[in-house]
What does this fold into?
Amino acid sequence: MEDPYVAFATAILVAAIIFIPWIGKYGNRYLYERNLGEMKGYLPPGDYGLPVIGNMWSFLFAFKSGNPDSFTSRFVSRFGQTGMYKALMYGSPSVIVTASEPCRRILLDDVRFCPGWPTSTQVLLGKHSFVGIFDEEHRFLRRLTAAPLTGHEALSLYIPYIEQKVKSELEKWSKMGEIEFLTEIRKLTFKIIMYIFLSSESERVVDVLEKEYTHLNHGLRAMAINIPGFAYHRALKARVNLVTTLRSVLDERRKRRDEGKNYGKKDMMDGLMEVEDESGRKLRDEEIIDILIMYLNAGHESSAHVAMWSVLLLQQHPEFLEKARKEQEEISKRMPPTQEGLTLKEYRQMEYLSNVTDETLRLISFSLMAFREARQDVEINGYIIPKGWKVLLWFRSVHLDPEIYPNPKRFNPSRWKDFTPTPGTFLPFGGGGRLCPGNDLAKLEIAIFLHHFLLNYRVERIDPKGPTQYLPHTRPKDNGLARIRKLSSPSTA
It folds into this structure.
C-alpha cells in the first residue's frame, strides 16, 4: 500500500511544477503592472520569469552553460525581433534593450534616464562611485578625473612607465614556465593603474588590493546572496578589506602631508584630496575611497582581458597575426635611432593594431550590458518604459548583430578597414555623457603590450580548446594557462 505521506508530497511537487510558472507569469504581471493603467498595453513584449527571482535564473543558466546568447535569443524566438523586452532582472521590473538605435537614444538622454545599476553593484563599488551618482555631482567628478587619464600630456607621461613594466613583465613570464596568462596580465595592468592613482604605494599594497579585486569582480554579476560560500558574500568581504586598506593609505598620506614630508610625485589621490567645488566643499574620505575603488577596478580589468584575448585570437588566425606583426615591425624600424621608446606618434601609427583591439572589444564585449533607470515615463519605438523601471542596454547583442557586423562571431580585424560604426553600434565603453573616462588609457596600454608581445613573444596554451566562462567577464576557465615563449630572433623593439 502506498505511503500517504509520499503521495501527498508527490502531489505537492507536481502542483508546484505546474503552478510556479503560472504564478510567475500572472503574479509578477499583477505585481508590476497593476498601477500602470493604459500604459500596460504599450509595454514591450516579454515575461517576468519565476516568482521573486524573475529572469535571473535563465540569465545565469545561459551564461554558465556556455551559450550566453541563448538568454536573449529566447526572447527573440518568442516575441519577435522587437529590440526591447520586458523582464524581471536583479529584483526590478526592467526593459532589456538589444537594438542599437534605442541603446543610442537612451545613452544620450541624461534628462529622462539616470544610472540604474542594481543595489548590490552600488554596495560593492560604493554609493559615491560613478554607478551611484548623476547630474552635477557626476559632471564635477568626471571633469576632475578625466583629464589625468585621457589628456595628451598625461598619456605621454604614462608611456615610459607602461612600456618599462610591459617589457620587464614579459621577460619575467618567459622564464616562469606555466603561468595563468590572464592573471599575470591583470597584475601588470593593476600595477599601471596603481602607479597613476597611488604612485607612492608599495608592492605589498598592490598585491593585497589586486587579490581583493578578483573577489569583488566575481560578485558584480552574481545574485545578491549574502551567505558564506556565495560570490556576493565574498565580494562584500573584499570591499571591506579594500576600504580598510585604502583608508590606511589615505590616513598615512594625509599625515605625511601635514608633516610636510615629500612622498613622491602628485597622483590622482592627491587630486581627490585637494579638489574643491565652487562653494569650497572638499571631498569626504568615503567619497575619495569609493572613487578610488571604482577607478582601480575599471582601470585594470578591461585592458587586461582585451590584451589577453587579442593575443589568443591573433594566434588562432596566423594571417591576422602576421599582418599585425609586420605593422609593428615597420613602426619600430622607422623610430629614430636616438629615441629610447614608443611615443604617442608611434601609437597613432598603429592603425591595424587599433583594428585588432576594436574587433576584440566587439567580439568579447567585456561590458556585456549597462544599466539605466527611467526618471519619467518614456516612449521609445512605440513602447513605453515606465518611470522607475530599469533599462538594461545589452551591448553584447548590438555587437553580435549580423545586420551591423556580417558573420559577427568570426574574429576579423579587417572588417574595420575603412569602416566607421554609426552611433550606437559600437559600445565597448558605453556612450554619451557617461562614456568610460579611461578608454583612451586602456587602448594605450593594450597597444603597448601588443607591440612588444608581437615583436618578441608567443604564447603556448596548455589547453587551447578549453572551456570559456562568461561571467563576470568572458575568459578561459583556466585563466589562459600557458607558457610564454621568447622568440629566438626577436624583432627590433
